[in-house]
Design a protein that fits this description.
Length: about 100
């Protein structure tokens, strides 16, 4: 089973993009979440992506510094860069967002 729950702060505003055309068109949002390591002053910076309504939500409501809980699954992949090297990727595909703090005034 591949299920992930993380709580952290957005490092920057989400990067929202549209892809495809016609029936294959959609929206995706990418962002990084700074997640504190237990018992340490260090954090891990987790790459996240969400699609469709999740991307709309990210675009409308998420911004740098917000503390969020996300739910999703880990996806790995790879691609070949300009130099011909294989680059391996890991990201969380987010299925649900939840606010962890009330909105600042």
């Amino acid at each position: 089973m591949n299920k992930v729950v993380l709580i952290g702060r957005l490092v920057a505003d989400p990067d929202v993009q549209e892809y495809g055309k016609g029936k294959n068109a959609g929206k995706l949002a990418r962002y990084r979440l700074a997640v504190d390591r237990a018992g340490s002053d260090e954090a891990d910076f987790i790459s996240c992506v969400t699609f469709g309504k999740g991307a709309d939500f990210a675009e409308d409501y998420l911004s740098k510094g917000m503390k969020m809980a996300i739910y999703g699954e880990i996806r790995t992949g790879s691609y070949e860069n300009k130099n011909g090297d294989t680059v391996y990727t890991t990201e969380v595909v987010v299925s649900q967002h939840e606010f962890c703090e009330s909105k600042k005034k």
